[in-house]
């Protein structure tokens, strides 16, 4: 139990919410010092390593997950934020049966995290990353996840609208909006797939049948 929270997703979110301000402060002060050999050596000694939940190597890998070591604090920040958005989404999915309104709110919050990553964090980071990197460390994947979360938020809102007896015409428009967002996510995924060749085929299939 962490801070009186019994839900594992809430516990993880609490830990990340405590870690993120410290990490952001560290990144800010390291950036002030600029690039030098001492900073490069110190960063490399941190041995920042992440595995990927979306990479091809994460499925059916009997040897264990593949790890990417990238000696960059901005990479660490981006991956932690991606994880935070992913756990927000998992928590939203978990509470759909019990609290539709809060679930939709969490989906939109997760979408905002991914949008921030796609527009503010990863674009400037791309030139410094090696070709072999996890799909999560790309702007396009954050864009895809943002669209997915927005579609899920609208899908959940449709359930609430159905309970209220919303007209069939309005419900049809809402359903069409969900399909549009998922279609846009698929377009982004396929147009940028060459940027990261390690993306899971299972994820691609799930997107197509969503």
Structure description:
The chain is mostly helical and 210 residues long. Helices cover 68% and strands 3% of the residues. It has seven helices and two strands; from the N terminus they run ααββααααα. It has a two-stranded antiparallel sheet with strand order 1-2. The longest helix has 26 residues, at 8-33. It is globular.
Give a short overview.
The chain is mainly alpha-helical.
Blueprint (SSEs and pairs):
Layout: H1 8-33, H2 37-46, E1 49-51, E2 67-69, H3 73-94, H4 100-125, H5 139-163, H6 168-191, H7 201-209
Helix pairs in contact: 1-3, 3-4, 4-5, 5-6
As residue ranges, the low-confidence spans are none
Amount of helix: 55-70%
By DSSP (H or I, 4+ residues per run), the number of helices equals: 7
C-alpha geometry: globular
Calculate the terminal CA-CA distance, rounded to whole Å: 35 Å
Cα Rg: 19 Å
Mean pLDDT: 87
Main beta sheet: 2 strands, antiparallel
What structural category arises from helix and sheet content? mainly alpha
Topology, number of strands: 2
- Following the backbone from N to C, one meets helices and strands in this order, namely HHEEHHHHH
How much of the sequence is in beta strands? under 5%
How are the strands ordered across the major sheet? 1-2
